[in-house]
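During the reporting period the student researcher (J.K.) took over the structure-prediction task from the postdoctoral fellow and processed the backlog of single-chain submissions. One of the processed entries is reproduced below for the supervisory committee.
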Amino acid sequence: MQRLSSSSNQSNINLVNNFRDALIKSISTAIAVVVIPLIAAFPVKANENRLCTSQLQKEVQKIALSPQLQAARIGVFVQTNESRPKVLANLDGDRYFIPSSNAKLFTTATALKILGADYRFATRLMSSNLPNSKGELTDGLWLVASGDPSFSSATGLKSLVTQLKNKGVKQIDGGIWTLTARKGAEISGSWEWQDIQEYYAAIASPFTIDENALNWSIRPSQIGKPAIFEWENSALAKDWHVENQSITVGKGSNFDLQVTRPFGQKVLIVSNQVPENLEPELGGVAVPNPEANFLALLREELISQGISISTVSANSKKLPPTQDLAINLSPPLSELITTTNKSSNNLYAELLLRALGDRFHEVMPDDSVSRGMLAINKYLQSANIPVTSVLLVDGSGLSRQNLATPRAIAQLLQTVADNRDFRKSLAIAGVDGTLTNRFKNTAAQGRIQAKTGTLTGEIALSGYANSKNYGEVVFSIIINNSNLSTSDLQQNVDAIALLLTNLDRCQ
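J.K. obtained the following structure tokens:
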């Protein structure tokens, strides 16, 4: 092997060192080119949920301009929750939108202000005289009702009849009559006829019991046979006809059960298929005559507790009631509005509206609904909310003729932000009410209190959102005129709401 000379060896060493230095410099430069962008990216990634308030309007617009919402109408209004609120985002917030169940916010807030948190509905049994020595009510029994939305046959009715029995009543002669101070329509003329027949559009009668609905359940049978349909109270549904055209199919098959009711008829048509492993499906229909239904249940309870009812004779006198025999009070209004808002109960909202109207009995027109609307308008005026920004025709939001601006909804929420009873009535994101299954495992879980609203093609979410880096804001988000499914609409609304829980002052 030939050995290199020392000079050649040193030259080679220098060459190697130069090559090494050049290589290191080249690699270092390359690393710097790669690393610098990565280092710059890290702060963004670490703060990817941080949204400066100055960026909120732009981010809301990005969602609103998404292709799937191109044909829809979107209204968003966000302001700070402070005595002199600052507007953080306003996307068509001063235009009219159909608020759907966000209308309940106006009904419940006004009810708290005018009726008071301790207000209770009363349902009475009365007569023109006390029972005689034989336990007979000789001039009949009066059912006097005011539209308690919570009144039930299991508790309220049973308590009334027990009180009557404890008064010594054994027999009722002269008939059973009804009396109420309520006046006006019990159903909105602008509700869609398909809704009117469903349990969620029950008639707002002063003689409300079991939410004026006949409940049913449907469960699978054997494969190839019709599903099993059952009424919760078959005695009350004895004059209803059920056409069961359904079929039970195997596990994993599509579930496409339909229950329809021809308009104005006591007929239910059950069709399509039910998989054999399906849990019972629950539903209900609106009772067509709540007053008659209440009387039927009352008679049933009287007989079950041993109080007989004689046939009304031609000589029976219908004397006005003067004696209280039994009374049932509803839970306080503070609890009733929780059911109204958390569960978005239409019947509760409509009966609260009529109770507002009853309080304004000295005001014309002589109609509980119209007077209830006047009460809401007076409350808006007192809160400096322009009455022209809220045009309601019902108390629940089921009508598509209701109109409100997102700004007006946010202003209302700002007005009642410190009312604990009102705040407790709103659903909590990912926790309860109509928001139980929304925002789970997100930054918004437990940080949003809001009222939902849903009609076909319409959705709303309005309430309060809290960010740990910014504090609480008041918001209203509404989408109208969309052909998207409710779940798709919810995703878009929730995406906007999530922005609010990531707000930062960025100072």
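The committee noted the following: The two ends are 74 Å apart (CA to CA).
J.K. will present the remaining backlog at the next meeting.
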